[in-house]
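Pilot study result, target chain (946 residues):
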Amino acid sequence: MTEHLSAADRRILDTAAPELDPDAYAVLLAVADGASHRLPDLLAALSDRQRRSCVPHLEALRARWDEAWQDELRPYARTLVVAGAGCHTGASAAARWLRHPHLDLIEADDATALLTILADRPAEWLGDVAHRVAGPRLEYSWGKHYPLVKRLVLLSGCPVPTTEVFVQGWVRDLPWPQAMDWPVVVDGALAPAPAPYHGGAERLRADPFLDTLLPRLFEVDGVGDPLNAWFGGSNSMSASLAELAAEGRLDRAALIDDCLSRLLRGGRREEMNGFHLLLIHLDPTEEEYAGHVTVLLRMLSDAPTDIAVHAQETLVALDTAGRLDTGQLAEASRAALFRREKKLVRAQLKWLDAAARRDRGRAGAVVLAAADALGHQDTAVQERALDLIARHLPHAGDAVRGELAAAAEAVSPVLRPRAAELLGPETTAAGSAGTEDVLPPAPVQRSTAPPPATPAEVAEEVNAVLTAARRAARPGTATATAASTVEAVSFERALDGLARHGYRDREKLVRALEPVVRAHPWQGRAVPHEDLGPLELRLVVAVLCGEEPVGGPRPVDPRAGAHPHTRLSLFEEALAARVWEVAWRVVHDPVPFLLATPTSADGRLDPAELADRLAEYGRLGAEPGPCDLDQALLRLDTTAASVPEALTAAERLSGETGPAGAAGRKVHAWLTAGGPAVPEPVRREGPPGPADGYEPSGGRLVLHRAAAETPFALGPAFGRLLGAYSAHGRRDETVWKTGVHLWPAVLPAHRELLATHLQPTFAAAADEELRGGAALLPVLVEGGGPAGQAVHLGLAYGLGARHPEDRTAAVDALLVLAARGELDTARLGRVLAGTVELGTVKPNRLTESLREVFRAGAPGVVWSVLVTALPAVLAGAEPRKAVRGLPDLLTLGAECAGTVRVRGPVDELRAAAAELAARGGTSRLVKEARRLRDVLEAGTEVAAGR
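Predicted structure:
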């Protein structure tokens, strides 16, 4: 009967058999058989005492199956949910049991058994359970928790819960119920599942919770998305709400007020879109909007683009109808003209122009409002504002000229002559001198904290790492950018703590780890995970605590440990080998500490510290682990001030016999050679070719590299990281790996090697629109070693990434390199030109990134990059073929040239701009090429006259 269960599960049943009477034990056998249909009759025959006697054994099974989402275990986990709910006699305990994520596994038959069992409980008890399950901090409200609580509320007649999770569940369940085939509650009693579901307004009219929960709809986060969902007979839930408001079932004025207030509060774009759709369906009249002008003005200032556009269009209509005063017009302009969206800014300037044409008395206020656009980042917007000011200045009066002149100080260098012509030469005096870059301070290398001093501290750090790693590994989490990402230094401290205190007092460490073992049940090494990362720490804990056997010879390769993963990255292979080696040694050959534990937060290891550690190994007669020593060597900072001291110590160790002496000779040879000699990569262009069914749509710049040369061969796991690298077209999956943040600490002193391996990740951020693909760039550049072709190629891809957060990461990385004096702007410019020509990097995204660098105080850096990149980009440009973002890139180049007063050789760029400008036409590309040409020629003349 229990042959399908594991040995550990059968031991739980064997332990329970003599402790329980036969009737109670039958409940556990039903769980073991996955037979939830037997439970209502079995539990009905038990007393409360008999039910409670089953609880410890059910809890033990749940601890075993806590992460058991494998298909073969689901029938037993579902039945376990039903049994536990029936055996916990206290409302608090029953609610705690039902809040577990295993509830999401249950199916219709299980739900029928569960509700049949619970329906026999008193109404007050059911209501208590319902409100506890619907309480705060429930992370799994999307699945079956809401339909269960809904039925408990209707069975008990208790007040409707209004917690966030219950409101979220209500809204998400309305469009298409998660449990359509569950029993329903009719007149306080269970009834069979209803007829096929009917949605739309009819569904809302019949909903028993509508009046109670509708006001909370506008107060709770996370409910906007479902408002856009299909809703049966209507297009969306928003349309159904508007339909009920139109027929008087809902208060229309209250809905409009609540909807506008919710839009004003802000939130995620997707969230706001749902409430925006509701507002569109409600379609307020001019009279209704007139009472909400203040709200509309604030929405224009702060709301997402689509909502701000709606607010702006509504305000324009109100102004045209004479319902806005001049002060409100000025306030709307301040709100819109300081936004980055060109659509809003252009529309606002058009509105101002129309307002001044209708009423010349508003001309003064209009030109002052338009002056706010003179500081906009887009030169074309500044030019529009100057046109508007020129058009209405004659009707504005002389009193406004002083304020206009002050506002014009922010105008782009390329428009200063026009501003001076319009407002006077004193307008441009502030911009006559070149601007020097003000870079942020270079990051300081931080030392790591001392190792954990006690077993209790080790257990605390291990638990923190495992908790964060499990949170990051949950489905739907963007692991590479998750706040719960485990830092490499935390993982390394925990790993070293396990080895260190396992050597000192293993029994005491095992006792300290008992809460960790309970909180993070071990599923066995044979159970494959999504990838290898910080969760591998649990293997060492399992070996220490006797949950996982480790026999046989000492492993030197992850395959020797029979690792269940079949497709590992090279970094994962290195991690697997090192962790397996540590796990084997804590049992068979404990060491006092690990050699490779970093001394700095970026993962580097001070050479003198490694020499000291090896000396202590020699004194204690300990043998260095091959993987541990290889990792230590790859972390050595061969440029550190302590290298001479370390060489002397290593030479002294080299004369000794035994393992420590052999390790000392390796360290001495490694430091003498300066680490691995990495060959210069070979750059190739074009499509990398299909692989694994994926073929990139465009081309890429890729780098191929021969194997690095080392003083001696490293072991297979770490040696493969130094082997030859050939770029390929396989779709990148790095960003979804929970252990990706550990990778930079594997090669912290060799940025070029690391950047070469990460090429597919960085490129995918640009041409596959992969979110999080550039997240490692800031960590990469803060490491050691040369910043050559691979680092600059990764930077180029990041600057052209699809998602703003990736571009921000690339900007941060660029500024760090510039602050450290390691940015080769000419190399970056050449790489950017190549990626733009191939279509991997789009000019509009590149412009946004470089403008952020400009705003960060480094216009000289941007100019130095563009003066190299633009000639090649312009050579392939076609005046009559629109290339999105290319005119803006030229505009930025002209602004930088004017700001820094045209530094460096510019002949090639001036010739390219002049050639494009001479082709004729009225396209914006040609116009911006002329502007850049003029700025370069004027700047060259000024420089020649100095």
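One observation from the pilot: The first helix runs from residue 7 to 19. A full batch analysis is planned for the follow-on phase.
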